[in-house]
Amino acid sequence: MRIDILTVVPEILDSPLNNSIVKRVQDKGLVEIYVHNIREFTDDKYRQVDDYQYGGGSGMVLMIEPIFKAITKLTSERKYDEIIYTSPDGEQFKQKDANQFSMKENILILCGHYKGIDHRIREHLITKEFSIGDFVLTGGELAAAVMVDSIVRLIPGAISDETSALSDSFQDNLLAPPVYTRPADFRGWKVPEILLSGNFKEIDKWQQEQSLERTQNLRPDLLDDE
């Protein structure tokens, strides 16, 4: 799998993409991640990639030409399954999307910045638009990093116990059940007896019940999505 990211501040992506599981997946050769600086695609001697918006209003807008050049260059080298734009007004990115994208071959992510990008890019080149929540970030780089992390950890071989990812929250529109580890009794706070019983059929039943109960109490909206 290959993921290309277009940004005006590539430094923001250095830490999240070069540590922990994301780095190990790259080291294993399971995914290639390339970060491209949009400023490399401008002819402006000052490397300017933003300008004032037509019609007035506060905030700068990323210009169409450098983004068009960047996307055109990358798409001339390979076919992308999706060209994604990170934006607060995009569709909310969910676990089902991470599942789907983890099976793709090539993904291109364009990070929004400032007041956004020239809308013609969104109209003619973008295939998917995603937000990670109903709030505004300084730029789309952190959103892109969150999406990449959620995607690459699902690639077969990314984590040692592949069944672990299948029991994550949101996989079945349910929150994960509570988890515990040693000691079984800490200052009188005890692990539920069922988890110590060794009866895996009953443990599985308990975990399913806990998942449903937690979802009903904490995120009932997830049950409406079924």
Q: Per DSSP, what share of the residues sits in E-state strands of 2 or more residues?
A: 15-25%
CATH class of the largest domain: Alpha Beta
Q: Say what oligomer this is.
A: single chain
Radius of gyration: 21 Å
Record field, number of beta strands: 9
Helix fraction by DSSP (H/I, runs of at least 4): 25-40%
- Give the averaged pLDDT, no decimals: 93
Class by helix and strand content? alpha/beta
CATH H level, superfamily name of the largest domain:
SPOUT methyltransferase, trefoil knot domain
Look up the CATH topology of the largest domain.
Alpha/beta knot
CATH architecture of the largest domain: 3-Layer(aba) Sandwich
**Sheet having the most strands:** 5 strands, parallel
| N-C termini distance | 30 Å
Task: Please tell me about this protein's structure.
The chain is elongated, with a radius of gyration of 21 Å. It has 10 helices and 9 strands. The longest helix is centred in the last third of the chain and has 19 residues, at 200-218. The chain folds into 2 domains: 2-152, Alpha/beta knot, CATH 3.40.1280; 167-224, tRNA(m1g37)methyltransferase, domain 2 (Trp Operon Repressor, Chain A, Orthogonal Bundle). A hairpin with a 7-residue loop joins strand 3 (50-52) and strand 4 (60-62). With 226 residues, it is α/β, with parallel strands linked by helices. The strands form 3 sheets. The chain has a 5-stranded parallel sheet, sandwiched between helices. Strands 3-4 form a two-stranded antiparallel sheet. Helix 4 packs across helix 6 (141-152). Helix content is 37%, strand content 19%.
